[in-house]
Amino acid sequence: MRTDRVVYSSFSGWVDAPTDVRPAVDGDIACRVAVIGGGVGGMSTALRLAQRGQDVVLVEAEFCGYGASSRNAGQLAGAPGGDLQLLNLLSRRKMPGMMRLAEHAAAHVEDFIGTHGIDCDYEATGNAFAAVSRGQMGRVRRVAKIVTRAGGRVEVGTAAELGIPRGFVGGMREVVGGRMNPGRFSLGMRQVLLESTARVFEKTKVTEVVRDGGQVVLTTPGGRVRADHVVLATNAYAGEWGITPRHLSVPIYVIEVETEPIDPARIAALGWTSGMGLVTQHAIMENYRLTPRGTIVFGVRRLERGTGHPLPDKVPDAALVEELAGAFARRFPSLSDVAIERAWGGWIAITSSWLPLAGRLGDDIHYSIACNGHGLAQAPYVGTLIADAIVDGERHEDLQTLWHEKPRFPRPMMMGRAGLRMIWAYDRLLDLVNGSRRNARRGAVRLD
Question: Against a cut of 0.90, is the pTM above it?
Answer without folding.
Answer: yes
